[in-house]
Amino acid sequence: MKLSTRGRYGLKAIYQLALYYGQGPISLKQIAIEQELSENYLEQLFSTLRKEGLLHSVRGAQGGYMLSKKPSEITVGEILRALEGNIAPYDCVVDDDFVCSREDTCVTRPVWVKIKNSIDEVIDSITLQDMIEENIKFEEQEDER
Amino acid sequence: MKLSTRGRYGLKAIYQLALYYGQGPISLKQIAIEQELSENYLEQLFSTLRKEGLLHSVRGAQGGYMLSKKPSEITVGEILRALEGNIAPYDCVVDDDFVCSREDTCVTRPVWVKIKNSIDEVIDSITLQDMIEENIKFEEQEDER
DNA sequence: GGAAAACCCAGTGAAATAGTTGGGATTAGA
DNA sequence: TCTAATCCCAACTATTTCACTGGGTTTTCC
Questions:
Q1: How far is Cα B84 from Cα B52, in angstroms, rounded to an integer?
Q2: Chain B residue with minimal CA distance to A108?
Q3: Which of A145, B116, B127, B132 places its Cα 20 to 30 Å from the Cα of B15?
Q4: Mean pLDDT, to the nearest integer, of B133-143?
Q5: Could you tell me how far CA B121 lies from the centroid of its own chain?
Q6: Neighbours of A59 (CB within 10 A)
Q7: pLDDT tens-place string over residues B67-95
Q8: Exposed/middle/buried for B102, CB within 10 Å: 0-12, 13-18, 19+?
Q9: pLDDT digits (tens, 9 = 90+) for B87-136
Q10: pLDDT of A54-104, one tens digit each?
Q11: What is the model's pLDDT at position A99?
């Protein structure tokens, strides 16, 4: 029941973009260095995020990536779903093509539904802006010591 | 972010044991047939659940497994954790041995913590008894149609 | 024109998952 | 006492998923 590195790395990387919001395109290389991630791998993640409409890209020299919306308008849920697909303990609660011969009598399904709903509630309520603010608060507390 | 078959099969199987609670030991074979699972594989899961104290076993002919507590005293959380380990999106929020060089400055950790807490809240609040009752209610609704 | 960047996509090695197999040990009942 | 039912345990294997890597193309700035 773990997220893969796609979701984890992707969120870290897009957080970094959020910090630079409004400052023009940032190169993959810079993000990869700042968050200690593989540049090539990150490229795949950003490609996905771009196709999902969360990022804009600028090609050519001095190009790079930027958020397509304000940090307060992008939720963790959108990011994780773009990178990992629906976040749920089992496909039977999300995948329309999923065939379950005993869907109507499955005794565990209600449990999976409840877990999914509670995760959704959390990730859809956190925006990149929230993450930035939480981090600022945390750093201030550190400084006080 | 999916559960493995261990958690899924295990919960189905132990639910079946809950239905027979108070009726003495039930054989693996019977459970395997009723929930359409591999008997040998199920054995591994029950072995784990026994070691965790959730099941009792009776060896020999006419032996089998039974719940070690009332269905109302066993939660889904106990079962899933026994079979899958801690349920969390990332090891950094559960594993004491986990080494994270940037734990204090990690911007994503608060997100993982919130997800974990919300999952825990759900799975620790559902007992086997709850599952049985939910299923009875569902069947009654079906009958009305 | 050259360098820097995004873009595209196929391949790969390692690890995890989902079982299977085979052989014991124990016990109830005939 | 014998036998069949059953739990117990460890090793083995096939498949899938993951986390990259590499090689090439295209675009744009200087």
A1: 12
A2: B12
A3: B116
A4: 90
A5: 15
A6: 7
A7: 999 999 999 999 999 999 999 999 999 87
A8: exposed
A9: 999 999 987 778 777 776 789 999 999 999 999 999 999 999 999 999 99
A10: 999 999 999 999 999 999 999 999 999 999 999 999 999 987 778 777 776
A11: 79
Considering only CB atoms, A126 lies closest to which of B84, B111, B121, namely B111
The Cβ-side half-sphere exposure at A78, using a 13 Å CA radius, reads 21
User: In this complex, is the C-beta atom of B8 within 8 Å of any C-beta atom belonging to chain A?
Assistant: yes
Contact A26, A66 (CB under 8 A): yes
Whole-number Å distance between alpha carbons of A119 and A15: 20
Q: Collapsing DSSP states into helix, strand and coil, what is residue A75?
A: strand
The count of other CB atoms within 10 Å of the CB of residue A73 is: 12
Report A:94-123 residues touching B (Cβ under 8 A): 104, 107-108, 110-111, 114-115, 118-119, 121-123
Residue in this structure with the two tokens 């069947």, named with its chain if needed: B139
Distance CA A124, CA B38 (A): 38
* Structure tokens belonging to residue B111: 């997100």
Cα B143 to the center of its chain, rounded Å: 29
Structural domain spans, chain B: 5-144
Q: Quickly tell me which residue has 């009598």 as its tokens.
A: A105
Which tokens is B125 given?
């609040």
Residues 6+ apart with CB under 8 A from A129: A18, A70, A71, A72
Q: Which CATH number fits domain A5-144: 3.30.565.10, 3.40.50.970, 3.30.300.30, 1.10.10.10?
A: 1.10.10.10
User: Position B51: which residue type?
Assistant: K
Q: Calculate what percentage of chain B has a pLDDT beyond 70.
A: 99
